[in-house]
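Form 7-S
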Amino acid sequence: MDVTFRIRRFNPEVPGKNRPYWQEFTVKDAEETDRVLELMHRIKWEQDGTLTFRRACAHGICGSDAMRINGVNRLACKMLVRDTGDKIQLEPIIGLPVLKDLVVDMEPFFAHYRSVMPFFVNDSPLPADGRERLQSIEDREKFDDTTKCILCACCTSSCPSFWANGEYVGPAAIVQGHRFIFDTRDEGWEERLDSLADPNGVWRCRTIYNCTPACPRGIQVTRAIGEVKLAIQRGKRDGIIKEAAGPIAESNS
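Output:
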């Protein structure tokens, strides 16, 4: 089949192209099983070498090729032509400054990520036998879902609260905070809860649910945010997952 692309372009260094505009390309002889990213490569290599976008692993792990595909946040490497049809519209993700074409400035996103202390904190001595800090399967399951985040920004850039106020820490940062807050081996959870209780923390979430379907890894983002909210309200983390699982899981269905 022939696939028509409508791509939002922007080049701040070229007069006449330093304002957003649309450009169309046609890729001939495409297969239904071709990925959008593969066809974008054909455009760049065969038609217009100035087309600019990020990509790396091409297997849905690095998260670098996040963009709006037909109006929805997706990874270009995971979307097949049979899922998009023969007309594909590409735009940069919303809420972050556009640098060129489909490339946005990710620094504000990563600044929010760093603010939740996304690293393991434990200053207690190791067990006497010198082995690692053990954890039960049940305790691991409490935060297993949020370990899947690849920092693609699909969830954060799909959030109307983030569009309205870029100071909002955003769903992805809260997911990263959740991963460590509910790790029973971690000792920095109280400090993270204090940070996320900030006016630009979890309470800016309006439970719109845009974030969960936008996640290419299937993380229950809204549920994780709800569990962090509940932990802040209770001033603890123990028992929160069990207490929140019913209504929050139901809301994400």
